[in-house]
Amino acid sequence: MKYEENFKESLENPEAFWGRAAEGIDWDKKWDCVLDQSNSPFFKWFPGAMLNTCFNAVDRHVLQGRGDQVALIYDSAVTNTVQKYTYAQLQERVARIAGFLKGLGVEKGDTVLIYMPMIPEAVMSMLACARLGAVHSVVFGGFAPRELSVRIDDAKPKVILSASCGIEVQRVIPYKPLLDEAIELAGPKPEKCVILQRPQVNAEMKQGRDLDWNEQEASAQPADCVSVKATDPLYILYTSGTTALPKGVVRDNGGHAVALLWSMKHIYNINPGEVYWAASDVGWVVGHSYIVYGPLLRGATTIVFEGKPVGTPDPGAFWRVISEHGVKALFTAPTAIRAIKREDPNGEHLKKYDISKFETLFLAGERLDPDTYFWATDLLKVPVIDHWWQTETAWAICGNFRGLEQFPIKAGSATMPMPGYNLKVLDGISAQELGPNEAGLLAVKLPLPPGNLPTLWNNDKRFVESYMAPFPGYYVTGDGGHIDEEGYVFVMGRIDDVINVAGHRLSTGGMEEVLSKHPSVAECAVIGAADNLKGQLPVGFVVLKSGVNRQKDEIVSELVQMVRQDIGAVASFKKAVVVNRLPKTRSGKVLRGTMRKIADGENYTVPPTIDDPTALGEIESALMQIGYAQKVAD
Ligand code: COA
Ligand code: AMP
């Protein structure tokens, strides 16, 4: 079946479409119905069915005779290590890790927090939780203790799994002091922490609470897979919303397995035994779906890469990994390609490697700008596919297909909606569906396809308020864009206070909360300004309390340090300016959208509701002083 038929059937008869896709999964018990729509917007995929996601990702491949096939390649450019694990070896380690978790009292439904760098044990930990029916919550290593503590508060993990350090190019980051501080800050405390000691750093252990990973694993009894409901949670992944409190996106077991398996074949065209590489981090949704679950559910070989596109040791790192491990498809963020392009504009490093097995480059995480698209296409001479998705969806909302029907590419477009996504462009005020080429809010008519979030962790209310209530009958993506006359989707960026920095999703509201804690700051605003490398970078504006007459530079560097301390280095918050007032509407709303346009040198109109038009001029000169607002029109 080609795209048109698939898409039509997925909307008109989702039960038939996804019921067929579900045949690729091993179920312990079949479903009562494919989709329960009785309690909208809380849809249930495959209610009544039972399965185990770890069994489907690991054990069944061993049972089917592929135990000797490589399941996971750990390639660490920062420690010069390559390790390979077959499916049988992966099963053995995962069962033991599940065994020690079980020994520590972890049972079906309990939560386990994972705070680890890109090492095989991070993947194994996730699978071990899935094996027991426990709910994992992975926190990205670049987040600071306060961010980690907020997640501990919400997920209330029984056990935390961590390692002694992460390695950032030349810098070793001890994780344990960060973890200790986060636990200190958190309300509910984990019963146990199991720490993997890496050779680079020896973590100090807290007696009675901390346990040594290797000792635990060596003495553990392997644990079997526990059957769970298709609708039971597999994991929680926190993502930035518009406030400082992150949203705990919940993933179910059944719908998730079905959707990811479908995507591996039809979007990525990956078959069992082939090598697929998502150069991301297990802390992000891309890592969850396409380092761990997607490729393993498909019986493919996945790569855990500990390194960066540049600097480990050079901009040829990605081409080396592709060549050395015979990668068929790579998935990364445009920012990684821009980083390579900046250091090696003529692609000299590529000449050293044979990448003849490489068939497709997939990009997501932020808009793929046409320059980067053309550069990568010319260099690699393979299709470069932009696809658009979010933590909430677990897989692409839009994209092109390598295993179904490939559409001609239009630079700047994420191509067609995926089956199951009845994507519409809405007018933000009238909520009417807009026609071709009309710009508006991108929204998906319910129901969402399998894999998408059934709710937020312990917070049905926020789930409804954030995504479902603004336009009843639709899921609001938070992105704006348009669909052209041929059905190609163009995603232009967030319409809320979420920004994308180097493919990482961050909340400007969260940064504002940090800035406002500074004793000299009366009020503040943070916007995401365009950046050639990272897509966007945060820029802060602060108004000082009256009577404060300290050096502005000193205050700015304290603010930069505070964001790094409270949110983490990953926020890349390095620029802030002191202004006399923020531009506001008469009702007091800060004009962040206009400020962003000024920063990016775009045309803007002075909003008629503005309180004091001179405030915009001050913003413009402040931005110019730090290298922004270069081509402002009136
Ligand atoms: N643990 C601790 N610190 C981390 C970290 C981690 N796991 N990941 C990043 N950081 C730190 C970095 O060291 C850097 O610190 P610095 O300010 O002291 O230099 C800061 O957080 C910002 O990191 P990053 O945004 O990664 O910037 P970078 O300059 O180190 O690298 C790129 C830039 C483009 C090479 C890098 O962002 C990249 O490879 N991006 C790929 C995109 C990606 O993985 N996206 C995920 C979704 S697909
Ligand atoms: P995250 O939840 O971290 O994956 O971030 C999701 C957000 O990243 C989306 O809401 C978009 O704003 C942005 N995004 C992801 N992929 C794309 C893409 N292909 N094109 C444009 N924006 C994208």
Automatic annotation (TrEMBL):
One of its GO terms (molecular function) is propionate-CoA ligase activity. Residues 63-445 form the AMP-dependent synthetase/ligase domain. GO terms for cellular component: intracellular organelle lumen. Pfam families: ACAS_N (PF16177), AMP-binding (PF00501), AMP-binding_C (PF13193). Gene3D superfamilies: 3.30.300.30, N-terminal domain of ligase-like. Residues 511-589 form the AMP-binding enzyme C-terminal domain. Residues 3-57 form the Acetyl-coenzyme A synthetase N-terminal domain. NCBIfam families: PRK00174.1. Belongs to the ATP-dependent AMP-binding enzyme family. This is Propionyl-CoA synthetase. It comes from Desulfomonile tiedjei.
